[in-house]
Amino acid sequence: MLLMRWTIFFIMLAFISAILGFGHIIGSLAFAAKICCFIFLSLFIGKLYKTISEC
Predict the structure, then answer these.
(1) Model's pTM, two decimal places?
(2) Whether residue 53 has pLDDT greater than 80
(3) What domain count does the chain have?
(4) Do residues 3 and 39 touch, judged by C-beta distance below 8 A?
């Protein structure tokens, strides 16, 4: 759940910096949000597969 919070945090920071006009920060924040999201999804799918295979 922590990775999902970090993903949402980076996405919100990217939106806020886009609204305020900080263009050079947006790319870094969006990249960090993407990385956190992919890590979260891979861990989620792995846990889901493990849970299904135990049944």
Answers:
(1) 0.66
(2) yes
(3) 1
(4) yes
